[in-house]
Specification:
The chain is of the alpha/beta class and about 400 residues long. It has 2 domains: about 5-45 and about 290-390, Aspartate Aminotransferase, domain 1, CATH 3.90.1150.10; about 50-290, Type I PLP-dependent aspartate aminotransferase-like (Major domain) (Aspartate Aminotransferase, domain 2, 3-Layer(aba) Sandwich), CATH 3.40.640.10. It is built from 14 helices and 12 strands. It has helices at about 5-10, 15-30, 50-60, 75-90, 105-115, 130-140, 165-170, 190-200, 230-235, 260-270, 275-290, 290-315, 340-350, 380-390, and strands at about 35, 100, 120-125, 140-145, 170-175, 205-210, 235-240, 250-255, 325-330, 355, 355-360, 370-375. The chain has a 7-stranded mixed β-sheet with strand order 2-8-7-6-5-3-4, with helices on both faces. It has a 3-stranded antiparallel β-sheet with strand order 9-12-11. Helix 6 links the parallel strand 3 (about 120-125) and strand 4. Helix 2 packs parallel to helix 13 and helix 5 (about 105-115) runs parallel beside helix 6 (about 130-140). It is globular.
């Protein structure tokens, strides 16, 4: 028997990262020494004090083994509210303006399901985190791709969005610090422009701030919700995956407009039970004790960033040092770029064992680039550069 999936599933583009994962498996089977710089999957362990809190809770508090609340436990939401006030100077109600998530990826996809009717338009950054595009398509919506270009510092030019698109759009997605381009918002007048744009066209602003704490060189990432009027038009997603190296724990949160939050909570209550209570308790402990471990994490990523950029520079591959995220966004050098980012990424792992994310996997405007994730031990970046050097045709 053959069962046919929903048509909307077939509308999704090929998941390029599945192809890269398959090539990684093939490389492992051939006994290649794989250096995996593809997925933004932190190799650093979750801070010990968070792990200890989890273990203690699971062992000694069996009530936390029961079903949680879809919106998140009150104690968790209060901790988020206190963190927002302390970190950004933003007041959010723990009762009406905060809910927990099973990671921000889940939250973004569920938000699309909660708000988009078939045919509704969403404005999606290109290049961008794939769930923005995929979440819209799975909800039956239509995507307008908003170019993020190097010449504009990877910030969207809102005035270039066609009037007819802006009038039909229901949601606009933003993400700063940005994945994959590593771009940051340095002039907060940009967010003021976003608020004016959203109010003019009655568009919901969804700001994904998953990398707000992974910053370098004294750069401090702002919150969209710091902007006057922001809460009237949107909300902001945050994740524990990168900040506390808790990617596999699946825990995040969203804060902002109470009407949007209420509808997302309603949707979630029908499709999931939320993140386990013991994970919420461990995560909020991380928020309350955030300082030291975040500084240490950022020092490690900054050191890796500097080391790998220096090694790439030696082989003629110049990369601009990012002020945030755990990535390098690198334009493919020389004639080899003509083959395209996917072909280059495939060749790289087949010939050298190095896995990277092809820019085309993040959208049309990502073509010509690859994203390196700084998720391997420091001494591996020298080896990676030597292998790339050989592939690019330089004498080793």
């Amino acid at each position: 028997m053959k069962f046919i999936p929903a048509r909307k599933l077939n509308k999704l583009p090929p998941y390029i990262f599945s192809r890269i994962n398959q090539l990684k498996l093939e490389a492992h089977s051939k006994k290649l020494d794989v250096i995996d710089l593809g997925m933004g999957n932190p190799d650093l362990p979750t801070p010990e004090h968070i792990v200890e809190r989890l273990c203690d809770t699971v062992r000694h508090h069996p009530r936390t083994h029961r079903y949680p609340q879809a919106k998140g436990m009150p104690k968790f939401r209060r901790a988020v509210s206190e963190w927002f006030e302390k970190r950004f100077g933003v007041s959010v109600s723990p009762e009406k303006e905060v809910i927990s998530l099973i990671g921000s990826k889940e939250g973004v996809a569920h938000l699309c399901m909660a708000f988009l009717n078939p045919g509704d338009v969403a404005i999606v950054p290109d290049p961008g985190y794939p769930v923005y595009y995929n979440g819209v398509v799975l909800a039956g919506g239509r995507v307008y791709k908003m170019p993020l270009l190097a010449e504009n510092n990877y910030l969207p030019q809102l005035h270039k969005i066609p009037e007819k698109v802006a009038r039909k759009a229901k949601i606009i997605f933003l993400n700063y610090p940005n994945n994959p381009t590593t771009a940051v918002v340095e002039d907060e007048s940009f967010f003021k422009e976003v608020v004016r744009f959203a109010k003019k066209y009655n568009i919901m602003v969804v700001h994904d701030n998953a990398y707000s704490e992974i910053t370098f060189d004294r750069y401090v990432a702002p919150s969209f919700l710091q902007t006057p009027g922001a809460k009237s038009v949107g909300l902001e997603f945050h994740s524990f995956s990168k900040t506390f190296s808790m990617a596999g724990w699946r825990i995040g949160f969203v804060a902002g407009n109470e009407n949007i939050i209420a509808s997302l909570e309603k949707f979630k209550s029908f499709v999931d039970y939320g993140s386990p209570t013991f994970i919420q308790l461990a995560a909020l402990h991380g928020l309350k004790e955030a300082g030291g471990c975040i500084r240490e994490t950022n020092e490690i990523y900054a050191r890796r960033r500097d080391r790998f950029i220096a090694e790439l520079s030696k082989i003629g591959w110049e990369v601009t040092p990012p002020k945030a995220t755990m990535y390098l966004w690198a334009k493919i050098p020389g004639k080899i770029s003509a083959a395209g980012s996917l072909a280059f990424s495939e060749l790289l792992i087949k010939e050298t064992g190095i896995a990277v994310a092809p820019g085309i996997g993040f959208g049309k405007y990502g073509e010509g680039y690859v994203r390196f994730a700084l998720v391997t031990h420091d001494n591996r970046f020298h080896d990676a550069a030597l292998r790339i050097k050989k592939l690019l045709g330089h004498p080793v």
